[in-house]
Structures are given as structure tokens and as C-alpha cells.
């Protein structure tokens, strides 16, 4: 469904992506692993057309979105839902209003239909009777769940996750990981997760790609990543710091 071909991006003198190639298969959970500052978020922003590469292609079902105008990009974006790192909820809106926002902005549904869809989305993420709560009244895990409910409200084909377990305790991290897998299976979604949480990726992903110095160093299933002898991969798996050569 999604393919990045020879994508390069620099910001000033800083080369962030340097010929990145990545395939994100349809209907699977793909996780892009990398240390903080390695270019994971930049990769995600390329996929939804928030950034254009200096070089390369970003293909969605074979269509290169780097060549599209704003109207066409919005058409492509309508197929995506995004769960941002902190949930990105509107602090001035309650839970119901946050989740309903995409429907109010982009559809002509009646109020009763919107309420029904919001309730269904909340049930899908394991939350009920929280519609009137404000974001400030929610725990970190609940904010993530509300953010996911908003991400799925328009029945997207793809969900993009930006560090979904960042800042959560181990128990809530495990809950969110299970929720990601359950949501993917229930709605037959293509999931793309950017993360530095190695253990979460090994438990949830069908495919893992390791980002290093602007390129994909290694990709495969969890067992392939565990079996890698590359010094960077081994250090990353073991939580060690240091710099390494790709070769």
C-alpha cells in the first residue's frame, strides 16, 4: 500500500533521510524503530504529505503524492488516521467534541448519527461514559485511547502511530499495545508505528524496519531483528548507547 523510494531530506546542513527505501504492506502492523532524532517523525510526515522530500518518491497505492497539489493531497489524507504522541486533543473541547471534530468538519452527518459513531468509536477502544470529561481529567492512557477513537472515527484505511507508548507505565504500555493489535485485526487496518520501544515492536509488529543514519539498516519480522548480529541492532536491542558504522 505504501512505498518510500530513495527518499532524502535535509534541513539546512543536517541530512535526516539519505536514500530511505521502505515498503509498508497492506493490512499489517509495520514498526519503524530508531533512536530519538533519527528521522522517524520526518518519515511519518512524508507519508501524509506534510513534508516533501528533496529527492525520491512517496507512493500510496502506486500514486506518487510528492507530485500532487493540495486538493489531491487532502484526498489522500482522508484515508489516514493519526494518533499523535500526546494524543493531540483539543484542551478546550470535551471527549465527545474531540472525537466528533473530524465528522463535523468533513461530513454532513446529522447530530444523532455523529453521536452514534462517537459512542461506537469509544466502545472500540474500551472507553464508555467519558464523553463529557475534559482532556485534563484523563490519564495518559485514556488520552491515548481517546486519540485513537478520533483516529478511527472516519473509517480510515491506514493508522499512523507516533510513539504510542511514550510516557506510559509498563502496565498501560501493555494495554495500548494490545489495543493496537486488536484495533488492527477488528478493522483490517494497515498500521504504521514509529517508536523507540524495542520490546513493544517485537510484541506487536508483523514487520520491523530499523532506521539508522537516514537509511533502513535492517527489516524483517521480529525473529529477524532478534537474530541480527549487526552491532547497532544488538546495542539498540540491549538499550546501549554509542555510535556505529553501517558496514
Account of the protein in words:
The radius of gyration is 18 Å and the shape is globular. Strand 7, helix 6 (170-187) and strand 8 form a beta-alpha-beta unit. The chain is of the alpha/beta class. The strands form two sheets. A six-stranded mixed beta sheet has the order 6-7-8-3-9-10, sandwiched between helices. The chain has a four-stranded antiparallel beta sheet with strand order 2-1-4-5, covered by helices on one side. The protein has nine helices and ten strands. The longest helix has 18 residues, at 170-187.
Brief overview:
With 247 residues, the chain is an alpha/beta fold.
- What's the order of the H and E elements? EEEHEEHEHHHEHEHEEHH
> Biggest sheet: strands, sense, closure?
6 strands, mixed
Poorly predicted tracts of residues = none
Please state the average pLDDT score. Answer: 91
Helix fraction? 25-40%
Overall outline: globular
Alpha-carbon distance between the two ends: 30 Å
Q: Structural class, from helix and strand content?
A: alpha/beta
Number of helices: 9
Rg, Cα atoms, Å: 18 Å
Beta-strand percent range: 15-25%
**How many strands appear in the DSSP assignment?**
10
Strand order of the main beta sheet, please? 6-7-8-3-9-10
Amino acid at each position: 500500500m505504501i512505498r518510500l523510494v530513495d527518499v532524502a531530506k535535509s534541513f539546512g546542513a543536517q541530512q535526516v533521510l539519505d536514500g530511505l527505501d521502505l515498503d509498508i504492506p497492506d493490512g499489517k502492523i509495520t514498526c519503524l524503530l530508531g533512536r530519538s532524532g533519527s528521522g522517524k517523525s520526518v518519515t511519518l510526515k512524508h507519508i501524509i504529505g506534510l513534508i516533501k522530500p528533496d529527492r525520491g518518491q512517496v507512493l500510496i497505492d502506486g500514486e506518487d503524492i510528492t507530485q500532487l497539489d493540495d486538493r489531491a493531497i487532502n484526498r489522500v489524507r482522508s484515508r489516514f488516521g493519526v494518533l499523535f504522541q500526546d494524543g493531540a486533543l483539543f484542551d478546550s473541547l470535551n471527549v465527545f467534541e474531540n472525537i466528533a471534530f473530524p465528522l463535523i468538519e468533513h461530513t454532513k452527518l446529522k447530530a444523532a448519527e455523529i453521536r452514534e459513531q462517537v459512542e461506537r468509536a469509544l466502545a472500540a477502544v474500551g472507553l464508555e461514559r467519558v464523553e463529557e470529561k475534559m482532556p485534563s481529567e484523563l490519564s495518559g492512557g485514556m488520552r491515548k485511547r481517546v486519540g485513537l477513537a478520533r483516529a478511527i472515527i472516519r473509517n480510515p484505511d491506514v493508522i499512523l502511530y507516533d510513539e504510542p507508548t511514550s510516557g506510559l507505565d509498563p502496565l498501560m504500555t501493555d494495554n495500548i499495545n494490545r489495543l493496537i493489535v486488536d484495533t488492527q485485526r477488528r478493522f483490517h487496518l494497515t498500521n504504521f508505528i514509529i517508536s523507540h520501544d524495542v520490546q513493544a515492536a517485537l510484541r506487536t509488529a508483523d514487520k520491523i524496519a530499523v532506521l539508522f543514519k537516514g537509511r533502513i539498516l535492517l527489516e524483517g519480522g521480529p525473529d529477524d531483528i532478534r537474530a541480527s548480529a549487526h552491532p547497532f541492532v544488538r546495542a539498540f536491542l540491549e538499550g546501549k548507547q554509542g555510535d556505529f558504522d553501517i558496514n
